Structures are given as structure tokens and as C-alpha cells.
Amino acid sequence: MLLLARQVTVFRLVQWIAYCALIAASITSCTVPKHFQAGKPFVYKTTIKIQGNVPEKLQLEERLINQLDDSVKTQYIYYVGVRRVLEKPPVFDTVNIVRSKLFMTSLLHSLGYFHPEIKDTFHIDTVRKQYRTYITFTVIPGKVLRLDSIGYAFRDSSLQHLAMRQQDKSVIKKNEAYTQQKVSDELDRLLTVFRNNGYYKLNKEDVYAEVDTVVAALIDPTLDPFEQIRLLDSLRKKRENPTINVVFKQHPVKDSSRIKKYFIGKVFVYPDASYEQFDSTKHDTANVNGFQFIYNSHRFRLPFVASNIYLKPGIMYNQRRYFRTINNFTSLGAWQNVDFEIIERKDTSVPILDAKLKLYPSLKQNLNLSLEASRNVSDILTNGQLFGIGVNGRLLNRNAYREAIQTVTSARFGIELGSDFIQTLQASLAHTINFPKFITPIKIKTDSLINPRTVLNLNASYTDRLLLFKSKSFNTSWGYEWVKGRRREDQDQVGQKWRKTWQYIPFNFEYTDVKKSDSLRHLEDTIPSYRYAFNNGLIISQILSLSTGIEKDNKLTLLRGKIEESGGLFGFIKSLDYGSLARFVKIDGEYKHYINYKHSSWAFRFYAGYGFVYGKTDTSTDATQKKIGPENNLPFFKAFFAGGPYSMRAWQIRHLGPGSSTLYENETKNIERFGNMQLEFNTEYRFNLTSIAGIKVNSALFVDMGNIWSKEYDLNKQRVLEASFRFDRLYKDLAIGGGSSLRFDFDFFLIRLDWAYKLKDPAHADENDGWFNDIRLLNGQFQLGLGYPF
User: Fold this and answer.
1) Where in the cell is it found (predicted)?
2) Would you say 589 and 679 are in contact if contact means Cβ atoms under 8 Å apart?
3) Rounded CA gap, 498 and 272, in Å?
């Protein structure tokens, strides 16, 4: 009888969803025109259809839509995502169709399409007193031009030598598709090469690209069609695979100073510049490392400022050094504005450039108090983030020790909300010191690195997990951070490259002291694994992490990886290994990919983590005797977990898994679960709904899939195989949740309301593999989150 009721419930749910979908589809398909000119046809809908095998067809279609004349574009206003209003549609005129075709043809030519063809059709429907015009453009891009040969022929021998020496770094390659943007990017790259070698005054007026004249004529939109036919006939052999030649050249020299190499003369530095009128009687001067300092206070150490200036007196002008100096002082944070002025010296026959570097200081200290909701994404003891409500205090010093060393002192008190309302209380105090350089026993060259830093962290926290345990923890670490990749001065150069942010912590010390309650000790009798998880913990580890990303057109890809090793060296001390020292190697990685459209986007995330535990511990329950056995699981504050607003949203935080075991169900189902391994895949379709009082209201449909796994034992000390990861059980172990979301975007932060259902619950894997177990309309899981889930 119960099974029959459950089947009826599922059928009703599916029926209800299908009914709502039909209603929504019928409503959204309706477009309401408003404020149109009576008695005249107006543009109701414009469609672009691209024919042929065209790469990235959707992106090309969007770019072609942007090329349309404004008088054939339709602008819709959406209300609550179900009502679409066409406000003040333009009057239809065939002249605007012709203009749009010219704009689209120019775009296709710039993208290298050989002989594009654009056909247009339109028809007018009469609906009541409305004359709705439907316009369709059928675009046949044709064959794309490909680069055949690329050459350099500069009049000046020095420029020619530099161009040939850097030829291997060209952003255009043979057999690649020809585009005007690529040619422009290569011109920018050449100018950067020249300016990095002293040619300060050289600009785009002095260099140009000469393309194959016959083929170039074919992509000239003003060319007579009959002349194009004649040229096509002369290039019959190239018709199947059209190619083009490009040669980069130099215009005749009109101003000889543009092809002269410039050298740096005097460099004047104002470390504490002010926007007020400069008073020459109220300042001091000093010469440090050849730089002329002019200052009004002793706020900064002059040798420190001089060490961060890379455009030095006497050297040849180098644009890369110029931008690196600006970027360096900007990233240090002690200055709010950097003005680096280059002045050509007129009273000398030798090309000389003087420079003025004006540094405008920021406020030295900043105190911030805030009340916020936040999340717990990793360590519940050593990390100050909780999902709940927290009070934060933060004191920032931007210029400690007069060398732009940043110190941050923060205090926090938070409560974590769970099934029993208040689940966790936590207080923490942290102090971080950021040194704007590498501090190492041996000198490391950092010229090729961006923002190299040395970071010292000190953190103490207290956690009261009500009715389970109380813990005190202390954490300190010494590490290095740097960025490897393209600098700001290289932004004009094309050629997508991954920009990598590295962090290496050679020393990380964490100690946790846990006081167990009677409730937790009772649970240890029920779940033996808890006996080894919730203990005093000592971690002496080193950590290496990398994050990187790349953006191209409407796609963004982000990657993150991290590896932590604890106890590899200190674990050879038996007293530590058998005591509280945890020995493990933990690896995790994350892949995110976004595809963005004008009113919607797709988001994908894949996460995987694994912890290899190999230490020893005292497994005896009698304090008078020792029994040494293997550590089975990661410490609970380093373990993986799933559920909550930023993971598997159909489950509460730390309430999924491990595997398809039922060890934590029934009377212990509200106890948190941890694992040595985690796999997770999430996808979302995000779309705009409307705006209310200037607040953007958006929504999303999402699916989450994943689980955690660990080594678990029952009361008879038998291994619970359903909790361990095995490929032949992966289908049974995977949990799947799905739902919808309502999101309020305030620009500077986003509030997210998620509602999710357990579509496949591995805890009921024996019943239809866990699919659609007890799904009812109000039997979902609500999640409140800040920001996007990924």
C-alpha cells in the first residue's frame, strides 16, 4: 500500500511539472508589442540563419546580430521570465536591410571569409491592427582565407633584425585562418618588441601590413562585382583553398626621431606625493641608487622604494620595465595612485628621456566591522568560514615597517546553522603578514614573476560543536605566492595563455585539541570510525597549489589543483607517528567551465579529491596499554564532505555518504559524515528573469552528482565495503540531486535560494538503485547561499 502511494505521488509530481512547463512555454512564446506606429509595418522578429560547416556557429551568429542596423533589431523586455514585451518596435524599411547586409559582410571579411553570401527575406503578418514584419537573413560565409606566407621587410636594418629575431613569437601562423584582428595584433606585438628595445616614439603610423593585392581585392566590400568575377577567374586554382600572403613593412621615415633609440636620463621620485600644490620649500632630497628622491616625510624607506623601480638612469628605454614599475607599486597596496611621466629632453643631441615617478599614498590603516552570512568550505577548525551568521572585525595596515608590508588582524565569532538550529559556535583570531618579496635562505631571481610575496599566517580558533565536542586549534604557516603569466603591458598582444597563480607553503603547523562529550563517546561505540576521526590532531605539512584560467570569446575556463603532504619527515619520530601526528598525502582538483550568452549561461564544475593515509596510531580503548594500528581516515578537519549550499544541494551539509552505506542512517542520520575521497559534478543553466527596483532577479535549473567515500567498520570490526570506493559500485554509490534556484543580484553580492530534490539517493540503493525515493512536492531541501555555488 505504501509502495502504491509512492508511485502515485511520483506520477502526480511528473504530471504537475509537465503541466507547468506547458503553461510557461505558452506564455513565454507570446510577445506583446507596445507603442508602435499605427498603420505602419514594424519589425517584430529578426532571425539569422548560418548555413554550412562553420566553426563556433553560435558565437558567429551573435556577432552578426550585433552588426544589424538598429532599425531591424528587436529589443525585448522580460517580466518575471514569462511575459515578453516589445517596446517601441522600429518601423520596417528595406533600406535598413541593405545597410545591415553591408555591416555583416564587413564583419565576415574581417574574419577572413572568402566570398560570403547573404540572402534576405521578409513577410508581414496582420494581427488585429498590427503589421508584424518577420525578417530572415540567410548567411553562407563561404570559404575562409588562410595565411600562406608571412614576411617582414622593414626599411631600418635594426628594426628588421629585431623582427626576425622575435619571429617565432608571432601571433599569426601559416595555415591559420586570416583575420584583420590577427594582423592588428601582430602589429601591436612588433611595436612592443621595438619599444622594449629603446624605440620610444615608434607607433602604428610607422608600420603597416601589406597583403596579397589580388586576394585582398576580393575582400574589399567596395569592389565592383564584375571585377570580383574577373579576379576569381584569375585565381581559379586558389578557389578551393584560398590563401593570402602578409608582409609587415615600415612607412617612409618622416621624423627621424622615431627610429632612434632612447636612453633614460634623470629619474625623479616623489614617494609621498600629494594632490595639493607642491611647495618646494617644504621637502627633503636624497640620491639613492641614482634616483633623485623628493619627499616630505619619512613614511617610506627610500632604498625599498628604489628597489622597486626598474627603469634606471643610464639604461636603454624599455616599455616592459616602464609598465612593470607601475604594476609593482600598484600591487603593493601602500599607494592609491601611480603616475609615471616620461619627458623627452630637448637640449641634447643624444636621445634622452627623463622620468617623474609620483606615488600617492593610501591611508595607512583601515578598520572594518561587518555582520555577514558565510559558508564552511573546508576545515571547520582551522578555517574561519562557517555557513551561518558571523561577526567580523578586520584591521588592515598597508605600510608596516615603512616597506609596504601588509598586515591583517582579524577576529570572528560565528554560529553555524543546522538541523538543530544552532549547530556550531566558533571564535577565531588571526594575524597575517604579507612581505612584498621572497624571503629565502638563498636568493631567488623573481624578474619573470608577478607580485612575488612571502606570507606568514597565525591563527587560533575555538569551536563548540554542541553536544558532540569542543576543540581548540592553533595554526601557523610560512609560504610564498606568485603569479606567472602575461603582464598588463602585454595585454594588447593576442594569443591566449594561461595565467598561473602559485602558492607554496614549505611549513604548515596545525594542532587541534578535542574534548569529547558523552554523546560523541556513545557514537564511537556505535560507529567505530569516529573513534579514530575525532581526536587530537597534529599536522606538520607542506602545501603546493595552483590556480589558472583562460577566457576566449564567450567561454571561461578555470582550473585549480592542490597537494598537501603531512608527516613525511617528522613521522619517522615514532612518538609523533603513534601519537597525534597525522601522516597523509591529500590531492584535490577542480575544473570549471562557463559559456555565457546575452541573457543566459551554462556553468559546469567537476571536482575530485583523494587522501592517502599511511600513519600509525594507538587504537586501544584502555589507557593502560597500547595497541598500535593503522590510521584509516583523514582527520575530520582535513576530510572531504558533501552537501550544503555549495555542493550536493539536495542534502544538508556533511550529511551525504559515505558511498551507499547505511551506517549513518536511522538514529545516527543527523551525524556528520567525512571521507577520504570525493567526486562531484555540477551543472547549471542560468537565465535572467526580470528587475525589481533595480535589483536583478535571476534563476537557474541545476543538477548535482557525486558522493564521498571512506574506510568504515561496523561494531564487529568488519569492513563496510559499501562505504569504500570501487568502480563496479560507482553507479550505485553516486547521488544525484536536481532543482531550481531564485537569485537576487545586488551587483556587489548575490543572495541565492535553492530548492533541490534527491533524484537518486544511494542510501536506498537496494530500492530501484535509489531512484525517486519518497519524492513529494514539499519533500525537498532548501539551501540559502551567498554568491554562486561555483
Assistant:
1) Membrane
2) no
3) 36
